[in-house]
Amino acid sequence: MILAATSGAINVQLGGAALQPDSPGTSSTPGRPPELSHFAQVVGLVWRTVIMWLVWVALLSLANLLG
Q1: What domain range is 50 assigned to?
Q2: What are phi and psi of 29, to 5 degrees?
Q3: DSSP alpha helices (H): ranges in 20-37?
Q4: Which residues contact 12 (CB under 8 A, 6 or more apart)?
């Protein structure tokens, strides 16, 4: 599930023998074929997620201190 969400977020096709379509020339999942440069997009996505969680924890801590 996480792999599918990530591939959708960076617009990359999933692949593998189980996902191959019956007719040649068609793709079973939308998006671009995976390339090495997509790793940079995944790293950026992970960093944004880490920052979001740090801000969330900071806000919860501040709310706990104030109230």
Answers
A1: 2-66
A2: -130, 145
A3: none
A4: 31, 32, 33, 34, 38
Give the pair of three-digit tokens for residue 42: 């995944």
Confidence check: pLDDT of 63 > 80: yes
Rg over CA atoms, the chain: 18
**How many domains, in total, are found in the chain?**
1
- pLDDT value for 49: 95
The Cα 30–Cα 14 span in angstroms is 8
Q: Scan for tokens 């109230």, then name that residue.
A: 67
Q: How far is CA 12 from the centre of its chain?
A: 10
pLDDT in tens, 17-26: 666 666 666 6
Give residue 2's pLDDT: 82
Per-residue pLDDT, averaged over 45-59, amounts to: 97
* Closest listed residue to residue 32, CA positions, set 4, 5, 10: 10
